[in-house]
Amino acid sequence: ITIGTANNPATQIELDNGLISSATAGNSRDGGNVNLFGRSLTLTNQSQIEASTSGTGRAGTIAIANADAV
Description:
- The chain is mainly beta.
- Helix content is 0%, strand content 43%.
- The protein is built from no helices and seven strands.
- The strands form three sheets. A three-stranded parallel β-sheet has the order 1-4-7, with no helix packed on it.
- The chain starts with a strand and ends in a 5-residue tail after the last strand.
């Protein structure tokens, strides 16, 4: 999952009671990555960002870049 780019970041990424998730289940594959490129990141009301696995693979990474405010 990617929002924005290094050369063209989103102005604002805002989650209100939301979820950004990259997950795999029950296999040996690695989980996907979450890449957020934005000037401002706001999470409210129990919002979450996650990268996980329930199998034998590795969970993905979460990267937040170009942020002036988190």
